[in-house]
Design brief:
There is one protein chain. The strands form three sheets. Strands 4-10-9-8-7-5-6 form a seven-stranded mixed beta sheet, with helices on both faces. Strands 11, 12, 13, 15 and 16 form a five-stranded antiparallel beta sheet that branches. A four-stranded mixed beta sheet has the order 1-2-3-14. The longest helix has 20 residues. By secondary structure, the protein is an alpha/beta fold. A hairpin with a 4-residue loop joins strand 12 and strand 13. The chain folds into two domains: about 160 residues, Aspartate Aminotransferase, domain 1, CATH 3.90.1150.10; about 260 residues, Type I PLP-dependent aspartate aminotransferase-like (Major domain) (Aspartate Aminotransferase, domain 2), CATH 3.40.640. The chain is globular and about 65 Å long. Helices cover about 35% and strands about 15% of the residues. The chain binds pyridoxal-5'-phosphate. Pyridoxal-5'-phosphate binds next to helix 4. Belongs to the class-III pyridoxal-phosphate-dependent aminotransferase family. One of its GO terms (molecular function) is lyase activity. This is 5-phosphohydroxy-L-lysine phospho-lyase. Keywords: Lyase, Pyridoxal phosphate.
Length: about 450
């Protein structure tokens, strides 16, 4: 017997730590099944999912379920036995990456991947310090809270080995799209951080960044940024870690990895992957160069991860890659993403509240402001739109330092009709705000 929604909530409040938060905390949704880009609540009501980038190829995709069940029925062990799945999977992933990224470590979550990346960087460089971007989030382990300004600012603060560079946000950051070469300007800001660190006698082990900062507000790096940063970081003896936990596996459409948007002459030294990799199954990974992996091996300590890279996880990972290819989900991300962005851009000519529409593929942000000149974040308006979209049975959430960016990272099977429906609903809500003259960022929502 299923619990009533009220009972589920009451028991959850009692049994589950309250810092494990719910979407729509004042009126949570109970989801009991899902398919493709649709979620269904306990009454069978359908919700359109615009944010589950984990269920990359679609919720409960039959090919993934079938691959998991088949391997589950046959064998699941740890990586201390030889098995073909881990090899086949590593080979398939290697084919999507530049040749120098050739050694894989399989783990269970984005946090584990980033924690291992940090260890690899520090072991290889024999240096300690890390540069991260403002507002970044890299995971929930203590090591990652330390390198996540989004978290440490609310907790114990910044450790002496962690340094923060400005978020290369060309919409509201210090260097904007209308000035010449913002990519170089933001990279030079990283160089300034390196100089300050070195002037204190400290040394950089790594520059850590998401290839498209998501918690930071769906930010797209300006052209030339990563190449220049890598140059500066390398000359300081450090390495470049690209966190692709949110953005990998073709979400940007044109490329398999978001770091590839920075051009063919850019290659990170480590890439971490997670969320979409197992379509909801806990599967994550670190890939690096033979040289960095060699330094890690040379410390003589075994790296053992009980569940990482087991035959079931790898069978699922392989099935995800197959579905991306067979259903041309990258092609879909290009087509639907471009049209969705275009539709949202059209709305911005109707509503002053829309400050910016940005994104690539199915990674899109709609930034709301109360004043276009001042770019004042319209945080309450964004929260109001999320709430109203829920009434339209559309699941969306916000991101960015001021929570004023509506983020869209739907399963990759998101359709043109889905994009049209979401745009129409946002249009209706914004029209309502306009006609009723609601000043949500002054009034209480
Ligand atoms: C960019 C990024 N890196 C790492 C993580 C941590 O991944 P996980 O929650 O799987 O540990 C997250 C999770 O939200 C993330 O967004």
């Amino acid at each position: 017997m299923e619990l009533t929604k009220e009972n589920t909530l009451a028991l959850r409040n009692k049994l589950i730590g309250q810092s494990v938060r719910l979407f729509y905390s004042d009126s949570p949704v109970k989801i009991t099944r899902a398919r493709g880009q649709y979620l269904f609540d306990e009454n069978g009501t359908e919700y359109l999912d615009c944010i589950s980038n984990v269920q990359h190829v679609g919720h409960c995709h039959p090919s993934i379920t079938e691959a998991a069940a088949r391997q589950m029925d046959l064998l699941n062990t740890n990586t201390r036995f030889l098995h073909d799945n881990i090899i086949t999977y590593a080979e398939r992933l290697a084919a999507t990456l530049p040749a120098k990224l050739s050694v894989f470590y399989f783990v269970n979550s984005g946090s584990e991947a980033n924690d291992l990346a940090l260890r690899l960087a520090q072991q290889y460089t024999q240096q300690e310090d890390v540069i991260v971007l403002d507002h970044a989030y890299h995971g929930h382990l203590m090591s990652l809270i330390d390198i996540s300004p989004y978290k440490f600012r609310k907790l114990t603060g910044q450790k002496e080995w962690v340094h923060v560079a400005p978020l290369p946000d060309t919409y509201r950051g210090v260097y904007r799209a209308d000035q010449s070469n913002p990519g170089k300007a933001y990279a030079d800001a990283v160089k300034d951080v390196i100089d300050q660190v070195q002037s204190k006698g400290r040394k950089i082990a790594a520059f850590f960044a998401e290839s498209l900062p998501s918690v930071g507000g769906q930010i797209i790096f300006p052209e030339g940024y990563s190449v220049k940063v890598a140059e500066y970081v390398h000359s300081a003896g450090g390495i470049f870690v690209a966190d692709e936990v949110q953005t990998g596996f073709g979400r940007v459409g044109t490329h398999f990895w978001a770091f590839q948007l920075q051009g063919e002459n850019f290659c990170p030294d480590i890439v971490t992957m997670g969320k979409p990799m197992g379509n909801g199954h806990p599967l994550a990974c670190v890939v690096t160069t033979a040289e960095i992996a060699g330094a890690f091996t040379a410390n003589g300590v075994e790296y053992f991860n009980t569940f990482g890279g087991n035959p079931v996880s790898c069978a699922i990972g392989l099935a995800v890659l197959d579905v991306i290819e067979k259903e041309d989900l990258r092609g879909n991300a290009i087509k639907v993403g471009a049209m969705f962005k275009h539709l949202l851009q059209q709305l911005s000519s109707k509503y002053e509240l829309i400050g910016d529409v940005r994104g690539v593929g199915l990674f899109i942000g709609l930034e709301l402001v109360t004043d276009r000149e001042l770019k004042t974040p319209a945080t309450h308006t964004a929260a109001y739109i999320v709430k109203r979209l829920k009434e339209d049975h559309i699941v969306v959430s916000t991101d960015g330092p001021w929570d004023n960016v509506l983020k869209f990272k739907p399963p990759m099977c998101f359709s043109m009709d889905n994009a049209k429906r979401v745009t129409q609903c946002i249009d209706n809500i914004l029209a309502d705000i306009k006609t009723k003259n609601l000043e949500l960022d002054r009034d209480d929502v």
